[in-house]
Amino acid sequence: GMSAAWQALLELRQGPTPTERTLGFETALALDERPLTVDVRGATAVVHLAAAPDLYGTAAIVYALTSIDGIERVGLRVNGRAFRYWTGVPCELRTRPDEVRCRHDDR
Known about the structure:
- The protein is α/β, with parallel strands linked by helices.
- It contains three helices and six strands.
- The strands form two sheets. It has a four-stranded mixed sheet, covered by helices on one side. Strands 5-6 form a two-stranded parallel sheet.
- Helix 1 packs antiparallel against helix 3.
- It is globular and about 50 Å long.
- The relative contact order is 0.15.
């Protein structure tokens, strides 16, 4: 049968239900960011994607998979290469110094 991990990713790929959409939920993943495969080894799920998701897409994948019993870690691979997650909000956009990690964009 279909693995619980792939079932969770399929639900993400389908996006919000019509009811969820009326409540203001939006899809977390763009079409090109949708997961292609997932491999679960021990407590780690590795998701393969064709394009890197943004913060919300990354979070949606991680939360969906770590909500499954036995999955404690999630790795993302984009075009076969390890994806180091989100690089942070631009520092000048932070509203509090302790809010989130920030990055200094090259000028």
